[in-house]
Amino acid sequence: MALNPSAPETRNHPVPNAYHQLYATPETVHWGYFDPAQAPVLTIQSGDLVYAEALTHHAGDDPDLMLDARSWRVFKEIPEEDRNPGVHIMTGPIFIQDAKPGDMLEVRYLSMTPRNHYGSNLAANWGHLYQEFDETERITIYELDPNSNNASAIYAYDVKEKYMTPGRITRCPECDRQTALNGVRVPVRPHLGTAGVAPAVNGRTSTIPPGLHGGNIDNWRIGAGATMYYPVAVEGALFSIGDPHVSQGDGEVSGTAIESSLNVTMQIILRKDFHFPSPLLETPEFWIVHGFDEDMNQAVRNASVDAIKLLTEQLRLSRNDAYSLLSVAGDLGITQVVDSRQGAHLRIPRNIFPKL
Fold this sequence. Notes:
Layout: E1 19-22, E2 29-31, E3 33-34, E4 42-44, E5 49-54, H1 63-66, H2 69-77, E6 89-96, E7 104-114, E8 118-123, E9 137-145, E10 150-159, E11 186-187, E12 191-196, E13 205-206, E14 214-215, E15 227-231, E16 239-247, E17 258-259, E18 262-271, E19 280-282, E20 286-293, H3 296-313, H4 319-329, E21 331-336, E22 342-349
Parallel strand pairs: 1-5, 4-6
Antiparallel strand pairs: 2-6, 3-13, 5-18, 6-16, 7-15, 7-18, 8-9, 9-10, 10-11, 12-14, 12-16, 15-19, 16-17, 19-20, 20-22, 21-22
């Protein structure tokens, strides 16, 4: 059910005013940043449905398998010097009519479908154990099986040069291919690593660290069937999506997930009746509160403080009761440790509340 959780069980489903298609082209993406001065590429009303393409910047790890004609245009036509200060290809921004600072965006992710049957994992120079692996980057290419909904590694190779240019193209036929993960199958669970609104700051904000605007949260639960709530910071919200994944574990310890492009369908709803200080995830089973900081201890503290805020303001628990509940029923997890600003999350099961 939609927050406010004190509302009746019958959820209000806004009837979409329109259905929009947003293809990823050099004219509709921005590479590596959020910016409140970025001109919107689509304007919608609250409740509209949007189909949008999200491209991975790692498609160049095997361009023959992971780049189609339209994706090639993005890689060829956006200059390398305009891919900064972050690395992710962002589709958008989308302007939501009447969205004002202090509002919330409720984004219902309805479907996420891989655009091809391949994905790449890079053991990157920003990975958690880069030094332990002799400062060598390794790429593993996975094939997705849509029938079993699993992914299997088909080959791997080492790269001498660090991944420094977003969208680097590697010619895999010219590299030393090695077998990898023989017989291992990884469940496919498509999700967005990065999505969010424009922060209220001058100039570009990197897509690499997560923050109160959303950004590179890297929570694999942000997939089809989930709803995200993002605090609006600027007029129109200016919402963008990118960094698509087909599978990832909590922590993302090597630096990346299985990176692969996705087609995303979502309903975007403007909420003026509900406010929350940080990106909030709602799944059929849980509310998940996020915390971010360069120090993991502080990220955990931030997630815990905001979780208490959720329980007291939306579920009307006392602070003492909320604190006790987090300890006995809340699951604290590490979202990621590789995006400069680290991420923690607290999962609160929804079925323990009798009114819900």
